[in-house]
Amino acid sequence: MKEDGRPKVMVILKTLSSQYWKFVEAGAKEAAKKLNVDVTIVGPSSEAKIDEQISLLEDAITQEPDALVVSPSQPVTVIPAFEMAKKKKIPVLLVDTDADWDDKVTFLGTDNYTAGKKGGEQLASMLKPGDKVAIIAGALGNTAMDHRVKGAKEVLQAKGIKVVAEQPADSDKEKALSVMENILQKNPDIKGVFSANDDMAIGALRALEARKLKIPVIGTDGTIEALESIQAGNLSGTIAQNPYQMGYKGVETALKAIRKEKVSKRIDTGVDVITRKNAQKKMNFLKGLLD
Amino acid sequence: MQAVKETSLLKLSKVNKSFSGIRILKDIDLEIKAGEVHILLGENGAGKSTLIKIVTGAYRKDSGEIYWEGNRVAIESPLDAMNLGIATIYQELNLIPELTVYENIYLGREIKNSGKFSLLNQKEMKKRVAEYLKRLNLDISPEDKVSSLGIGKQQLVEIIRALMMDTRLIIMDEPTASLSASETETLLKIIDDLRKQGIAIIYISHRLDEIKQIGDRITILRDGCKMATLPVKKTSTEQMIQLMVGRQLKDQYPKESFTIGAEGLKVEDLRLRKRKETISFTAYQGQILGIAGLVGAGRTELARAIFGAEPIESGKVYVFGEEVTIRSPQDAIQAGLALISEDRKGEGLILDLDLEFNMTLTSLKRLKQGAFLRFKKLNEEANRYLHELRIRPSDVDVPARKLSGGNQQKVVIAKWLATNAKVFIFDEPTRGIDVGAKVEVYRLMNDLVKQGKVVIMISSDLPELLGMCDRILVMHEGKMTADLSREEADQEIIMKAATGGIQNA
Amino acid sequence: MLDVAGKVSAEKKIAKGFLDKFGALIGLILLSVTLTLLTDKFLTLDNLMNIFRQSSVNCLLAIGMLLTILTAGIDLSVGSILAISTMLMGIVVVKWGMNPILGMAVCLGVGAFFGWLNGILLTKLRLPHPFISTLGTMNIARGLALIVTAAAPIAGFPYMIQFVGREFIGPVPISFLLVIIVYVGFHLFLTRTATGRYIYAIGGNKEAARLSGINVNRVLVIVYTMSGLMAALAGLVMVGRVNSAFPLAGLSYELDAIAAVIIGGASFFGGVGTVWGTMIGALIIAVLRNGLNLLNVSADFQMAVIGFVIITAVFIDVLRQRASKM
Amino acid sequence: MLDVAGKVSAEKKIAKGFLDKFGALIGLILLSVTLTLLTDKFLTLDNLMNIFRQSSVNCLLAIGMLLTILTAGIDLSVGSILAISTMLMGIVVVKWGMNPILGMAVCLGVGAFFGWLNGILLTKLRLPHPFISTLGTMNIARGLALIVTAAAPIAGFPYMIQFVGREFIGPVPISFLLVIIVYVGFHLFLTRTATGRYIYAIGGNKEAARLSGINVNRVLVIVYTMSGLMAALAGLVMVGRVNSAFPLAGLSYELDAIAAVIIGGASFFGGVGTVWGTMIGALIIAVLRNGLNLLNVSADFQMAVIGFVIITAVFIDVLRQRASKM
Ligand SMILES: Nc1ncnc2c1ncn2[C@@H]1O[C@H](COP(=O)(O)OP(=O)(O)OP(=O)(O)O)[C@@H](O)[C@H]1O
Ligand SMILES: Nc1ncnc2c1ncn2[C@@H]1O[C@H](COP(=O)(O)OP(=O)(O)OP(=O)(O)O)[C@@H](O)[C@H]1O
Ligand SMILES: [Mg+2]
Ligand SMILES: [Mg+2]
Predict the structure, then answer these.
(1) CATH 3.40.50.300 residue spans of chain B
(2) pLDDT along chain B (505 residues), means of 10
(3) C178 by DSSP, 3-state: which?
(4) Looking at CA atoms only, how far is residue C197 from chain B in angstroms?
(5) Which of B105, C147, D14, D145 has CA atoms 20 to 30 A from the CA of D228?
(6) CATH 1.10.3470 is right for the domain spanning D29-321
(7) Is D304 close to C151, i.e. CB distance below 8 A?
(8) Lateral strand order in the sheet of B8-19
């Protein structure tokens, strides 16, 4: 505990280099203010920097906080560091992405597989069996995105929709644009697109616009850019998680753990399927966070 | 010869220069008059190149003054010197290998089209270079890539580059080191012309005959100090050597004779890449075998081919009677050969590494115990050659880059002496080394012969070949055109064979 | 390799420059023929234009990279410069609502500034190798790009800014026309101007260049500034393409740019390389990616195939050169 | 720089190697002092051991990289080799349940194999620069690492394999002891053996090395094989550290390894560089990251700061060298 008596919570995220994680940060900060907790939020420069995240975690443990809130980029990799925390009796909470470790306090988040399924359902609801769709995936090996793709694909296939192309675009808007352009060369008759994140969805949308193709595109994450696009009638929808809640509840629950209160092993922060109907509301909420 | 004009063009006063705290130039005064050929003479490492580099802006002096036509000037970059009208032929080639001949010649002062975005006027540059090359009767095209030329032709390009500048003073640091006799003649004639036009020349060379032929005045340096400035005509060779090395030099060519022994290296019907003719010759124990020829005659090519540095079409090589197959320098060394390359910078030295490293590189296998090198042994060995060859500075830890050109050459020689080779092929071994050191090299060759080694010396320096060799082969356009005994050989007959005039091999 | 015929006219020489790059060109042709055989969609006007458009960002980055590699240097910061210059343009134009022309000027200016900074770090601070200085700016520029909007992307650029990256003249993307103009310009610059020649000279032998009176530092600063400028121009194209600026834009694009330059026959040791070779290098990469998408090759295999094709493309060139030396 | 005293014993010469790297060392010390003043957690035994552990993967990659850079080459594939060798070890040990010792042998063997492949591509296929060959293998190895388990990570390694990356002797992490042993070994190799000297010679002047009878190709193959082997060893440490093998392991680690080598004073043009300089370079990077973490500097600012410190650390060395030349 810090000199001022406030409990110290360290939040280690996958990265802080994207808006999604900035929302998690905003939630955690808000909780810090409301609950009078000393919260430090850090993350490596990109989600791919797995080793850097481990170092961050180790360095956080060195500072002996009262609790750790972690969102692991590669779930298995953090276990040894968690063991270190355990030795120092620091409780560990997971947010956004779960890890298979028995001694965790709890996992708060949605599960990417479910998010993917919801995305698939949303897309399927706008199509009919036999339609062709394309899937834009993240870089291979990005577990979260792999899970989303898996969920979406399963649902789509179950509804009799054909996935004719599944290509990676490394979470890069420009690459997604190129990939979509190329997919359209081969499959000009596709009827819908699912993208493992919003950035790539927006890139893909550009390719469709250029061809004057008006087909549903579903993204994942719920970034402001995606919401704006939905409002403008371009993007059909996105599966928004609740990063803000993850951050807020993460800290809140950490505090409970510090106080040795009982905490549920699984806290669902829920997903929102955003379409034109509810985009404005979500947008107001998110914009409010950033001021 | 026209009388030297008395106007002072360039004057140095109390110039000092140190490297890493060691004083290389000590209070040097020097005056160059318009229209004179001023010789700089001194042992390897005396500071000649350093001195001229201060004039050309390549180095900055520590203290002292420079006057140009009586006005004090600051020369802080090569461009400053060029703007004054100073052109330089450096001792080390300074060409861009990937650019063409004409591009190199005009580098830094290209001719541009008037108006149009100041694009280069390539046509004009090529034309002028072509004309100049034609005037000198040289078999070089303006569009040849410099990297495709032999080292001699590269040197010519470097010279032409200086000559084609609009200059008042041309500095030549050992320009003839890689030139053959006839090309040297051409250059000396050009120098005479330039002098007549009132252009001053600073000329550095270790070839005393040239100095005598063209010099007006001579300044002699020793260990960074100026010893004297004298009129060339009134100074004897002995006097020059005395001032330069501080002692008498009895014999420029200390030839010793031995009895002829076994066939050491025998080359049979060797056909080089892209050549039609085959070459055969034998070098014996107890003899120094010379190979003469003009630049581009193919001597270097032959040596490299024997040594496995270049692929051959066909042919056999015997070392002491045993046939050997050489496909790489490694094989050659295994077979007991050593090749002292003519291109010390490109092929001889690892410039950034120290002398010990360079000198022992070829003999590491011999200098280790188990897996590890024996440092003491390495150090001893290196120091031994340092002293035997009088290399300066005599510190095995100095990187090779920091040595003067002549001392670098000695390091290359040392590196091969350190091997246990049976056959030594020296390609232009005395290029760029001073008269004193030359004698050391000749003595070394004598020693090698005495030890029963076979010595082959490729050289463009005819007096040296005549002075030291027991037999001289002459090459012309990739063929052997003469095989002369010591008695038969003289300058005239060699020149004739080298230009294709006779073929009796 | 040696031109036996002797005299070659300037025009022929340009052609020769092309031929010298035949190896990479052969690689490109072989790759294209293979893809044409494998999928009927490859050799369509539409798809070819696609490829040109997709290669344009890398083409622009690669031309700047070529300059630095010609001087025996490298520029790792191109991707980051792309990001910071477009982000700042976004702030000026979208957030502050200023004139798009001014915004473009800001974009190019910021790119040139960071490039200039690279040059100054290299020449004035005398850092031993541009790897260090550009690695430094790479991190700094990326950091700033993330900081300026707290990692938020900026969308909603006016049409004028999107124009270059987005529009077509007939079937031809304007971005590729821009690339052609830039390449012709750099071709002239490198082969027909004194500064261009100095760039080769510095890469070939820095000391000799200095002794020839060339202001080496000045030329190096020009080179890195141009590389930065080209990165910003690439950014402009990219913004038009995706209608937004985002802080992770251009992440690790330097690798593709370097690969294009090297596949195109330039030497890491400087002094060797051509503009057209670089373009072919960039096209090989673009065609490869396009082909993999058309064939719907699964993601895991894509990587391995790319690696294999890079090696093969260069190996063909090696074989050709060896053959021509026989 | 010149040793005026003349004779220097072999031992002194090694010490000189240390001193030559004083610049980078000064950078490291300055950095550490600053951090000690800024945060009381920095100079604790626990934290220092943390730094050592965190630097060990990069240290191992960097030593292999040093070898290639000494020969004027580069190895872009180290990160990918790390991934494929640990993935295959995972398959052998975890999936097939084979002996851990055998698994480690597989890991090292796969690493050495890919390194050897780099060497062969370079020397036998005569690709013009290792940038190409290793860029190729980088993609191929990464692709394979993704393919073998369809991108799934492998967890649950036996203790024996995790041992090196995970355990301590007293407070000292075994991984760092391993690094020390490896570094001492390579120091001896580079300074005391003929092959070590050949590596410097090849980097300094390849043609001169060849004409000195050095089998250049053989040495190059050894160098790249060792680099691959070190990448696999780094992988072994990493597996212990993170308790799993995953296909994206080591992504873009080559940049950190190159940075360590160059910050440590080696030259990109070959022939110059030391083992200890490289270690200091790797430690500078690790200390920097650790310090920024302890200070809780946010990721975007970290980037900018890292860029700045890299430039500064090298600049200090430049200043020192300039001063010593006076
Ligand atoms: N860059 C340098 N750094 C340190 N020492 C140097 C450097 N350049 C030259 N020297 C030293 O300065 C001295 C003079 O060298 P310089 O090249 O002027 O000799 P030189 O008279 O031209 O000899 P040579 O006839 O062999 O060419 C030598 O001892 C050399 O080692
Ligand atoms: N690296 C090279 N590439 C192409 N041609 C070369 C090369 N080196 C030499 N040549 C050419 O091969 C021929 C033989 O050159 P070589 O150097 O063997 O002659 P040399 O008699 O030793 O003369 P030098 O005094 O110049 O050494 C010349 O025409 C030369 O221009
Ligand atoms: Mg000299
Ligand atoms: Mg020769």
Answers:
(1) 8-245, 258-336+421-505
(2) 65 93 92 94 93 95 94 93 94 90 93 80 93 88 90 88 91 88 86 92 92 94 94 92 83 88 94 86 95 87 94 92 94 94 90 93 88 90 89 89 89 90 94 86 92 94 92 91 92 88 64
(3) helix
(4) 8
(5) D14
(6) yes
(7) no
(8) B22-33, B8-19, B63-68, B71-73
